[in-house]
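ok new one. same drill as before - structure tokens go in, u give me an amino acid for every spot. 270 of them this time. try not to just spam alanines like last time pls lmao
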């Protein structure tokens, strides 16, 4: 979490909680019941990105169960369905978006964090169509304020006009730490969403101590509403303001990601 009133909260987490290599001592203790993995993981990190919602609808009972198994101050991020983003005409995504938000996500209540809209690497920026898509994203569901994070993977999006569109809708551009995806560390909303995807198998904590210290400094900059000076940006910075940060260790050497998240949380508390 952030340390002063001028900064937003900093949450650090992982993608999902069900992964075989994490069992048997890598993350979960030997013999730990699989049915209690979320309960355990949610007490070691401060947020988890739910990936299953990308592939198919979940039942209300699942959201209720997840909320009950996690601490009061825990927050989930959630991938929006692929049916909404993997289409040629985004302006036609309305029914898929409505179905997603009618599935019971509101049962997470205060634990409902950012919704991640992840686009394929071949999807190019078409300004009119994307503007219509952004207009389809609801600002709230059952009285809960929604936060939308947009992950694009084509260089055509790296233009000031796209950043302006995101700011218009208070939507965050996802910063991806990845060898092949375009990078934009701009602050375009009242929160920042970062996905770190370069953990290394040979490093016990996924990222070296030196790298974790760099990410600590970057997260603290973002929490003040300031893009880190050592990361690329696209548009002119907005006036700095208190900004929440959601940072996830995703993919890469996935077996190391829980250790990376816990190590960064430890650094942030120093």
């Amino acid at each position: 979490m952030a340390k002063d009133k001028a900064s937003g909260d900093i949450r650090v987490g992982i993608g999902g909680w069900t992964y075989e290599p994490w069992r048997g001592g890598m993350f979960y203790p030997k013999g730990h019941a699989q049915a209690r993995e979320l309960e355990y993981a949610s007490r070691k990190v401060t947020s988890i990105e739910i990936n299953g919602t990308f592939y198919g609808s979940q039942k209300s009972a699942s959201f209720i169960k997840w909320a009950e198994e996690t601490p009061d101050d825990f927050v989930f991020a959630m991938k929006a369905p692929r049916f909404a983003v993997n289409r040629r005409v985004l302006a036609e995504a309305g029914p898929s978006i409505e179905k997603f938000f009618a599935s019971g996500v509101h049962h997470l209540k205060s634990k409902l964090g950012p919704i991640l809209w992840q686009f394929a690497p071949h999807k190019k920026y078409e300004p009119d169509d994307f503007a219509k898509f952004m207009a389809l994203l609801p600002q709230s569901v059952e009285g809960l304020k929604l936060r939308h994070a947009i992950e694009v993977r084509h260089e055509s999006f790296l233009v000031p006009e796209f950043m302006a569109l995101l700011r218009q809708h208070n939507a965050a551009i996802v910063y991806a730490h990845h060898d092949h995806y375009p990078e934009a560390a701009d602050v375009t909303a009242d929160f920042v969403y970062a996905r770190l995807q370069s953990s290394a198998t040979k490093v016990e904590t996924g990222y070296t101590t030196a790298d974790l210290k760099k990410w600590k400094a970057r997260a603290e900059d973002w929490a003040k509403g300031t893009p880190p000076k050592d990361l690329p940006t696209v548009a002119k910075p907005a006036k700095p303001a208190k900004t929440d940060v959601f940072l996830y260790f995703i993919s890469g050497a996935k077996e190391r990601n829980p250790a990376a998240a816990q190590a960064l949380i430890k650094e942030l508390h120093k």
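The first strand starts at residue 10 and ends at 15. and btw The chain has one domain: 10-268.
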